[in-house]
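Notebook, p. 212. Picked up where the previous page left off. The plan for this session was modest: take the two constructs that came back from the sequencing core last week, fold each one, and keep the raw output in the notebook itself so nobody has to go hunting through shared drives later. Recording the first one now, exactly as returned: residue sequence, then the structure token string.
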Amino acid sequence: MLAGKQGAPSPYQTPVNIPTLDSKYRLELDWQGKVVPSCVHCHQIGDALRIVHRNKNEAMPTDLIYPMPAPETIGLILAQDAAATIESIQKDSIGARAGFESGDQIITLSGQPLLSIADVSWALHRAPDIGSLPAVVRRGNTEKSLIVNLPLGWRSKSDIARRVGTWGMRGMATGGLLLEDLADADRSQRQIPLEAMALRIKHVGEYGTHAAAKKSGFLKGDVVVEIAGVSGRMTEGELIGYLLRKHRPGEKVKATVLRGQQRVELALPMQ
């Protein structure tokens, strides 16, 4: 340990009453034993950073809500068995407007050399909330330069529903609700417009912060059609981001759900 002034602890010395991570985690993964407790996962670090912002009563940064955006966020579907090669492109997407074509191999994005899908996600993670990214693709025997223009709000198109880190955000923003956008056929049957919010509650949490929605009267099968004054169509991920950015812990936001044919007014606590 480095010594500080006489009688004062060194700034590099760990206080004796605070446990260190090296007592819990190892430098290598324990593949033959308990692999999960043998490393610090990215989502655990993200959980901690989100809690810091929430405890400070701050708006959540978008890159913490939508970390490591998949290429599909900008409309690119990459092949699983080739280096950063585009298999298909979603119509009218950011990638389509940038001029990407099926079969292109993306050599660099924002100056980042690419080999895998994870490399693309890393480049997008480091991208601005609004702005442009240069890209270089190999198309046939030639290389071509493209510009990817990222509009404000592009990160919210990232699908975070199945990410482990989203569970903590569900506790903060929706009180433990697991939501899914109602399919067009179901909307037609229930006479809900295609452009309107219709998020079916698939699961209602029962413990800790994830029980807040249940305690407030939300039920599995309810369809959320308005919340915090917003009634336009959005995904669960978009709603979580909106609530974390616009509302602070301690607030209660008004929500309207369809329960069968009945409209029920409820209040959802922000945590």
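Okay, moving on. Second construct, recorded in the same format:
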Amino acid sequence: MAGRDVASRHVAEYVAAVASELPGPRRIRTAALAELRDGLCDAVDARRQRGLASDAAAREAVAESGPPDIVAAAYAPVLADLTARRTALILLATGPVIGMLWVLALTPERSPGPLLGTAPVLPLLVATAAVAAVLTLAVTGAAQRLLGDVPQLPQLAVATACVAAVCADVAVLGLATSRALTDPGVLPWIVTLAAAASALRLAGSSRAAHHFLRTATRPG
């Protein structure tokens, strides 16, 4: 039992060292680290079955895996693509919901036509965000085999989607503010909900765009 505890400690220390070098959201990092931990435990068990003591088996398995910073660097591109894909899915899921809130808030006719006519740039921004998000899903999914390895394409595509979403939110928040200043009586309560949703997405998209652009332009 003591030997197993020693082996577990070696594995835990190694995984923690890799984790300290690993980028990305906690949820995605956790899945990658769990996979690494399981692989190391399997490697330790295999060596123990060959007669090695637990301590020696753990040390050998960890040494064979390589330095933590090298292992983290190998995981980084995969995690970056998974993070880009997750961000694209969030944008595609929230886009129609936030758009409908604004239609309900700003157009008595319950049709997007008047809203889009008031802000002609909105259709272009919405289309850009949608196309870029779908492209992100394609290049991090099945289409990746067809396109091959195009460095930083997922990060650039999702950054474009985020920037377009930011611009769309700024535009529609500006439109709502302008209408509130000129005729506050025409704005129903639902505008507060729409504005809160847009503000949240704007903040998240701004951070994500900065992160992905920095990742895509990072040397090496």
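Notes on construct two before I forget. The mean pLDDT is 83.
Flagging for discussion at group meeting.
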